[in-house]
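User: I'm writing a short methods note and want a consistent example. For HTH cro/C1-type domain-containing protein, I'll paste the sequence; you return only the C-alpha cells, no commentary, since I'll be parsing the reply automatically.
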Amino acid sequence: MNSETQISLRDRCRQLKKKGFTIQQIADKLDIPYSTIGYYVKGISKRSPRHIAVDSIIRQTGIRQRKGA
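Assistant:
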C-alpha cells in the first residue's frame, strides 16, 4: 500500500468513527485489522447527535460560552 492510499484510508476510518461507527464495524466494513483501525482513530470519540447539533448552532450564530460560566 502506498502512502497516498494509506492516508486516504486513515481519513476514511476517521470519518466513519466520527459518524459513530465502532472500531469493529469499521474493520469489518473496510476489511482492515482491528488494531490498525484503533491506531488510525486513536483519540476520536463518538459524538452524540446533541453535541453535533449544538456545534452547528454555535458555528452558525457565532455564540460561544464564556470560560467559567
